[in-house]
Amino acid sequence: MELSEYKKRFYTTVSPSRPNSWEVDDIFELLAEQDEATMEALLSHVGAIWPVSHSLCFSYLTQGVKALDLFSDRLLGEWVREILGYYERKGLLGARKFMADVDGAFLGPMRGESGVVFEEISARMVHYIRGISGRSFNYSVSELPSTDTSTIFLPCALDTFPGKQDNIFFYKLIVSLQWGHVQSGIFSDVLSPDGGIKDIFSQYPDKHLSADLFSVLQFVKTFRCLELELPGLARRSKELCVKLIKQIVPNGAEKDQALALQQFLIHFLMIDNNNDATILWANNTGCEKIDAPENMVVLDELPKFYSAISQLPGSYTLGSADLLLGEFDFARAGETIRLRREKNEGNFVAMLAGFLQQQGAFQNEESEGSNVQKKLEENLLLLFKDQEDQKSGSGKDAILIDNEGIELPLEIAALIKEIEDDLGRIPEAYVQAAAGQAGGGINRQEYNNQEEDAIGIPTNVHPYDEWDYRRAGYRTDWCFLSEKSLHPVRSGFVAGTLEKYQPQLNKLRRQFEMLRTSHRFVRRRRDGDDIDLDALIEALGDTRAGLSPSDRLFVQLLRDERDIAAMFLVDMSNSTEGWVGVAIKEALVLIAEALEVVGDRYGIYGFSGMRRSRSEVFHIKHLDEKYGPEVQGRIAAIGPKEYTRMGPPIRHLTRKLQDTESNIRLLVVISDGKPEDYDDYKGQYAIEDTRKALLEARGSGVYSFCITIDKSAHDYLAHMFGRGNYIFVDEVLSLPAKMAEMYRLLTS
Amino acid sequence: MNEKLECRLEEHRITSEPFFLPQANEIDIGLAASANRLPLLLKGPTGCGKTRFMQYLAWRLGSPLITVSCHDDLSTSDLVGRYLVKKNEAFWQDGPLTLAVRAGAICYLDEIVEARKDTTVVIHPLTDDRRELPVEKLGKLYSAPPEFMLAVSYNPGYQSVLKDLKPSTRQRFVSLSFDYPPAELEEKIVITESGADKNMAVRMVKLATMTRSLKESGLAEGASTRLIIQTVRLINSGIDTISACRAGMLESLTDDPELLAAMDEMLFSLF
Questions:
Q1: How many separate helices (H) and strands (E) can be counted in chain A?
Q2: DSSP A197
Q3: Would you say residue A489 lies in a domain?
Q4: B161 plus B200 within the same structural domain
Q5: Do B83 and A530 touch (CB under 8 A)?
Q6: Does some domain include residue A499?
Q7: Are B80 and B97 in a shared domain?
Q8: Of A46, A70, A76, which Cα lies nearest the Cα of A59?
Q9: At what angle do helices A579-598 and A629-637 cross, to 10 degrees?
């Protein structure tokens, strides 16, 4: 095929956008020497990338040529999927970086190379750290592992060891070590009482060395603590640790310093079963032995250790061992701790003040006219944990009011625990402040919350992912759906419909009445609340007559409640104009009348919109809203609007249904044909996204059913809705009756 | 008739002392409630010792303990009693509640919120100072003897609006809140119940505690003391620790692969 032909194809794929011709020419010049298969393969993915970002698409084409030299076009789809993934997570720059490094970033992991990206295991690690620590940590990326006591910083990928499992395990070790550092209290230790940070390294001539030695000592301490706390982890990680420690290499010929560090670390890793290293290390440095490193005070130990190591000749490079030792950013941690303490204090004071106010209010009723603040201060007795431990042996309620241990609300108790873990005890000032505030009567927390609520995105716009079958993945937060309300109109529509369908309506009402559940007695059951006299007499008669009597002799009271929540999602696209739209509205009136009889919970919503940024759902009736003139007015107001983007509204109503407490959740979609939007949401793409949205609904326990109004049946319906999950109505006049009938069948 | 009653009651009598380690003063409160003829409400997560507490209390009081596990089809007749047919005559069969009232036993309704809402109303006249049980079908009104005690339990952790006690029911009871015991106590319980050694008990309790802190991450409920004991019993029968923990504890908690993987990591960190 000629180059111009390809160009033409490119333009058709990206239409209706019109990229600059010179930009396209530039790129196609690069592609000029490619063979037909390569061109075909490259161009086949343009459709998936172009709508996401035009610049990304151009980069893809330029890099794709080079990439296809390195791998076959079979892998191209996978590559594209990863590009789009990177784009969504890290933006254009991140995606370009990924594209530029085909071998390292794409093919390496494909070849089963050992590296592991943290994102792969992050979900697991979030739960893991929560489990072992009982609190949550955030994760963030940095070159060397570190922590600021609320976030753990980790390298974004690790390929330190040849086996993937080893690298995953190493991540886990790093995470546990960082948690251990926080747990050891080192970050609070370096805080000076005035809130500043002690400069612990300033007294040493070689600050770099002192910082490294600090890390070494801290690692030893934390590792020993982990060994006691998580023996399995420590046992399994020793081998990996030794490998990393061996990577501490001397710079130049003088090896003593590097060797001493190695021996020191190995000695403490193998403290139980290898004494050679101990002796070597002790001989080389003349250092005293550290007996119980888990209890060592690192800051006290550091000067001795520094003088021992610094006198040794030579210098060293940590190599990969720096991942094990990590780094310590005390300034950052100090700031985090300060902020957290401030926040905790504020929360604690506000919560306790609110609680005391409530308590005070109760007491005030009894003894009127007393000063709340004075009373509280008199009666509030603070029991510190240690005192209280001696008293009762348990660490509960640290605060006594009026000498009675009043049970504190759970959230205050949790906060108290957090503050106690941090500071050892609740500072008296906190409690006094709370008492003061309770007297003063301002609840600061409520105050703050109000301010926070005012900021942020409007609550009625919801982002939703969209399924792109070409890349077999989701486009994250691709569509923005807003929920609007339809203004009711006054018209004779509903009354007219009721009159027109009077005979059908009577029948429908009767049918639906049968569905209505009331408490009813069922006769002739094997067991039940009472004896069924008729059955008993019959059975006695049978016995007399020599027949075998029935054992169904009881009456049972059945109360099988219909616990159904149904949502009707109505197509309000342009194409419903005319009699289709009218039929849909009539059907809604009939079904609403019928459902009022049976008493199921139901909601009605319309949908339309244009482009991914403006998908709209129109509220006609909320799930538990009363059916009355208001709702009838909104049904009458349903009219044709714009396009049919079905995925987002289905996802939206699925989410709504998920929030309901019903046993059976039903989503009925009424539409008049293929899903279609103004942008590239059409054809196969639209069908696949709709299908996916319906599958998601099914997966979350929402049963979906679709009613399609069309002149003729289409093959895609079964694929889109799933076989047996849709009906197809060709004669629009029969829709109202059919819809009610379908609903009855579905729910009985 | 009385002989029959005695006979049926004997099955419910607890003859040997059940093992129970109090966490606080729950035994005193239980005994005091009994002495004052007040009903008991036990709340707490599953497998933390509510039922065992009732057994212990029954043993201390020397009363038979009639336990009813409530389910969503439990009707009033299931509690009070019903007519049955035998040969050519209908006879009345007492339900567990009536049996307990007549004999002065302890009636324990386990997981009361699972029962149908109307069922709970039957117990109302029994739980205030009237202490009587009307049986409409018999036209009788049974007065409860002083030894009769009603206890109900429920698990507030399910967080479902449907599964909550009505205030009118709730406000009749002396409430005892149970939670997982503190680590040291739980270790003792595990050691006594399963015969584990100290080291094993410490680590098993630690693992269970770790799973409990996953509650906010989507785990419905963390591992209970009962699950720990169950797991140690598996280990005692020769199953290796890792498989026993997986089968006996972790897999019973969730089907979510992510949470399972995370709990596996915890398991491997501990053992």
A1: 31, 20
A2: B
A3: no
A4: no
A5: yes
A6: no
A7: yes
A8: A46
A9: 160
Q: Which of A528, A484, A427 is nearest to A637 (CA)?
A: A484
Domain co-membership, B171 together with B198: no
- Residue B15, chain A, CB below 8 Å: the answer is no
- Do A572 and A537 fall within a single domain? no
Domain boundary among B177, B196, B230: B177
Last residue of a domain, one of B150, B177, B204: B177
Min distance A531 CA to chain B CA atoms (Å): 7
What residues make up the domain containing A547? 519-559
Residues B121, B240 within the same domain? no
B156 and B39, same domain (yes or no): yes
> How high is the mean pLDDT of chain A?
78
Q: How many domains does chain A have?
A: 5
Nearest by CB: A529 against B77, B269, B271: B77
**Residues A269, A358 within the same domain:** no
Contact yes or no for B161 and A661 at CB 8 A: yes
A200 and A309 assigned to the same domain? yes
Q: What's the Cα-to-Cα distance from A20 to each of A55, A59, A345, A680, rounded to whole Å? A: 12, 15, 59, 20
Tens-place pLDDT, residues A196-220: 777 788 888 888 888 888 898 899 8
Q: Assess if residue A304 is contained within a domain.
A: yes
The type of residue at B253 is: L
Q: Which of residues 50-109 of B touch A (CB under 8 A)?
A: 75-77, 82-85, 88, 90
Q: Would the pTM count as exceeding 0.80?
A: no
A217-226, A353-362, A586-595: segment of lowest average pLDDT:
A353-362
CA distance B207 to chain A (A): 8
Query: Residues 184 to 203 of B: which have CB under 8 A from any A CB?
Result: 203
Q: What angle (nearest 5°) sits at the alpha carbon of residue A646, between those of residues A642 and A651?
A: 130
**Segment A306-323, tens digit of pLDDT:** 888 888 888 888 888 888
User: Of the candidates B216, B265, B271, which has its C-beta nearest A124's C-beta?
Assistant: B265
Which residue in A236, A531, A543 is closest to B83 by CB distance?
A: A531
Q: Which of B21, B184, B269 to mutate to test the interface with A (most CBs of A within 10 A)?
A: B269
Residues B124 and B151 in one domain: yes
pLDDT confidence of residue A748: 64
Do A138 and A91 lie in one domain? The reply is no
Q: Could you tell me which chain A residue has the CA closest to the CA of B184?
A: A394
B-interface mutation test, from A124, A126, A127, most B Cβ less than 10 A away? A127
Measure CB to CB from residue B211 to each of A131, A135, A230 and give the nearest one: A131
Distance (Å, whole) CA A110 – CA A49: 22
Q: How confident is the model at residue A371, as a pLDDT?
A: 52
Kind and range of the H or E run holding A473: strand A473-485
Percentage of residues in chain A having pLDDT higher than 70: 83
Asked if residue A366 has pLDDT above 50, the reply is no
Alpha helix (H) residue ranges in A367-480: 372-379, 385-392, 410-423, 428-440, 444-454
Q: Please tell me whether residues A202 and A227 are part of one structural domain.
A: yes
Q: Flag if B217 and A233 touch (Cβ within 8 Å).
A: no
Are A232 and B209 in contact (CB < 8 Å)?
no
Packing angle, helices A493-500 and A629-637, rounded to 10: 90
Is A659 found in the same domain as A741? yes
Residue with tokens 């941690």: A333
Average pLDDT over residues A36-40: 83
Expressed as residue numbers, the domain containing B192 is 183-270
- pLDDT of residue A349 exceeding 60, the answer is yes
Q: What dihedral angle (degrees, nearest 10) is formed by the CA atoms of A211, A212, A213, A214?
A: 50
| Whole-number Å distance between alpha carbons of B113 and B107 | 16
User: Is B26 in the same domain as B88?
Assistant: yes
Q: Identify the pLDDT of residue A334.
A: 86
Is residue A568 in some structural domain? yes
- Residue B161 and residue A559: Cβ atoms within 8 Å? no
B155 and B201 within one domain: no
Q: Residue B43 sits in a domain of what CATH number?
A: 3.40.50.300
DSSP-derived pairing of the beta strands A564-571 and A601-609: parallel
